[in-house]
Design goal:
heterodimer; A: alpha/beta; 4-stranded antiparallel beta sheet; about 30% helix; about 30% strand; globular; B: alpha+beta; 10-stranded mixed beta sheet; two-stranded antiparallel ribbon; 13 helices; 12 strands; about 55% helix
């Protein structure tokens, strides 16, 4: 495992939100480093700041304190266009609620990964079909998203995230809406993707997922503690 | 910014399909506004053309004296004696006049105006004789039952010179067809007196009008007198002379109106402004309502598509992409609705033009300018919601399920 060049490094990161009753601090002095090939679980109770941390790490939000280095670039110095390019080219995201376009087919949803990318339509569809094949959904490629099961929807979402191989895949409660059988299938899929060199940062409150991961970060009251996982 | 056409069109179609009800409402609101605007444009364009055409029809060197219709008989009328007075005192001018009666044709199909006049009318009204001849001195002297018909009336009644035209069951020989020009503007007192109208029959004024109406007006009274100046430069002087003649106690007509080519244009412009303000107000109201519906459609559309906005940003869309997406969606619906409204309006006007009491002009500008104005208004109403969409935080958007 390459430990010299981290994909993501968060130094003394803090995040506050302005509210009617004054600023609310969600994250405090976060220091996290993720390397290529890491499969990091981020656990913690609801409201502990997991999703906020994930949003900061995936370049969807900006910290109010501290610095984030993504692929060796200091994010606060980057233009919105460059950040959009990094999200497009180097990150992948999987959500608890899948966020598929319900009127489009599985293939179209996966090809949507390339909506803002330079790949042409034919290339996008070829890569989307290959990604669907990898997650075992080649047979339902032309099924409309709203007619798919929860497991199929999540696998489609994963296919969308990996259709253009990212440096790091962010997954926010990806199994939160799935039964145990589908949860196991999704986690096996994540392991397979991770073995191909894609780092994964997975936010979950489900401790049953920890054995699939290589590192475990615990988010409590806006702070992060790293727990050593038993082999 | 990467702007591939195909995915953009797909996005627009998907966005519009996602809320068919609201899309249809906005479409209808905007289409109605565009249709109203298109009709307004047709009419005002036509009025503009009509104003210059009326000036030509009326004659640039011609002035007229009219008296609003009055059945009471108490007011002093314009009489044929006024004509003789003018002719005697304005050498070199051409002087004529008429008395008009609205009638229904004996076939029962066409209302028209019966105009009792003299042989000098063609000299003061620059109308085109399309067939035959006009009434002459002999017709008047011999009280011949002859009539010259306007082209529209002759066409509608399928009559040619030599045929018989029946007026209140009295047979008249048609001696000529005349193109009376001014059309579709015969609804005001001013025009009733001044304009022959599209459908008119001219007969010698030596024929008594008592068989066409129960009311017999004071002898030799006239609705309008026309004077063509001897030369263009003499018009102002001759007009002043005519006014002075009409100011004499024996010839005084207190409520007479003096109509010059400028007055004609001014009246038309008044019409134009009235239509522009009334129909224009309605059209803009429809467009504002359509725009407000469009804005509400967009706001609701954006609210329901917040997760999609988050997804797009997570996949590399910039804020400009998001703003453009919603702007183009709204422009697509506005353009389609504006085109549909303008084309429907034009088709309807073309279909019913013969039955409409308004002048119409079917130019390319009257089709495309309302569309352009509607699209511009649509864009204006869309900017705010589209900017809101562009400001949505992706983190919050993705949390929204």
């Amino acid at each position: 495992m390459n430990r010299t060049q981290p994909i993501l490094a968060m130094h003394h990161v803090g995040k506050s939100f302005a509210t009617a009753v004054g600023p609310v601090r969600v994250l405090n002095d976060i220091n996290v480093t993720i390397y290529p090939g890491d499969f990091v679980a981020l656990s913690g109770p609801s409201g502990s700041g997991k999703t906020t941390l994930l949003n900061l790490a995936s370049l969807l939000d900006h910290p109010t304190e501290g610095d984030i280095l993504f692929d060796a670039q200091l994010t606060r110095t980057l233009s919105p266009e460059t950040l959009a390019m990094l999200r497009r080219e180097k990150t992948g995201m999987v959500f608890q609620h899948f966020h598929l376009l319900s009127r489009r087919t599985a293939l179209e949803n996966v090809a949507f990964r390339f909506r803002y990318a330079p790949e042409g339509r034919t290339e996008a569809h070829r890569l989307a079909a290959a990604a669907l094949d990898r997650v075992g959904l080649a047979a339902v490629a032309h099924r409309t998203a709203r007619l798919m099961s929860g497991g199929e929807m999540q696998r489609t979402a994963i296919a969308r995230a990996i259709a253009k191989p990212p440096l790091i895949l962010f997954a926010d409660e990806p199994t939160g809406n799935l039964d145990s059988e589908n949860t196991a299938r999704i986690m096996e899929l994540f392991q397979q993707i991770n073995r191909e060199g894609i780092a994964i940062l997975l936010a979950t409150h489900n401790k049953a997922l920890l054995p699939f991961c290589s590192r475990h970060l615990i988010c409590t009251d806006g702070h992060i503690i790293e727990e050593t996982l038993s082999a | 910014m990467n702007l591939p056409i195909h995915p953009m069109l797909r996005d627009i179609a998907a966005g519009l399909r996602s809320h068919p009800g609201r899309t249809l409402l906005s479409f209808l609101g905007i289409a109605v506004g565009a249709a109203a605007l298109s009709i307004l444009w047709n009419v005002t364009d036509a009025l503009r053309l009509k104003a210059s055409q009326m000036q030509t029809d009326f004659g640039v060197n011609t002035f007229s004296i009219i008296r609003p219709p009055d059945d009471s008989g108490e007011r002093r009328p314009i009489r044929r004696a006024h004509l003789r007075l003018l002719a005697a005192n304005l050498p070199g001018t051409a002087v004529s006049g008429w008395q008009a009666y609205p009638l229904e044709s004996d076939t029962g199909r066409n209302p028209y105006r019966l105009l009792i006049t003299d042989q000098h009318l063609p000299a003061v009204r620059p109308w085109k004789l399309t067939a035959g001849r006009f009434i002459d001195r002999t017709d008047i002297a011999l009280r011949r039952p002859v009539a010259a018909l306007s082209k529209t009336l002759a066409d509608r009644e399928n009559i040619r010179p030599g045929d018989t035209f029946s007026i209140r069951l009295a047979p008249f020989t048609v001696i000529g067809i005349i193109d009376t020009g001014m059309t579709s503007l015969d609804t005001s007192d001013f025009n009733t007196a001044l304009s022959a109208g599209e459908r008119a029959a001219f007969i010698p004024w030596s024929l008594a009008p008592n068989w066409v109406t129960d009311y017999v007006p004071p002898e030799e009274s006239l609705d309008a007198v026309f004077v063509r100046a001897s030369t263009p430069s003499a018009m102002t002087r001759e007009l002043a002379t005519a006014r002075a003649l009409f100011a004499q106690p024996d010839h005084l007509v207190p409520d007479a109106e003096w109509i010059t080519p400028e007055t004609v244009t001014q009246r038309i412009r008044q019409w134009q402004h009235l239509i522009e303000w009334s129909a224009g107000g309605i059209a803009l109201l429809c467009l504002a309502l359509g725009g407000a519906t469009l804005m509400s459609l967009m706001v609701s559309n954006i609210t329901e598509r917040i997760p999609e906005i988050g997804l797009r940003i997570s996949l590399g869309a910039s804020r400009a992409h998001i703003v453009l997406l919603f702007l183009l969606e709204s422009l697509a619906i506005t353009t389609l609705a504006a085109l549909a409204g303008a084309l429907t309006a034009r088709a309807t006007l073309l279909l019913f033009r013969a039955h409409l009491p308004i002048p119409l002009s079917f130019t390319a500008a009257s089709l495309f300018l309302p569309v352009a104005l509607t699209v511009a208004l649509g864009a204006l109403f869309s900017i705010w919601p589209a900017l809101i969409a562009g400001r949505i935080s992706p983190a919050e958007a993705l949390r929204n399920d």
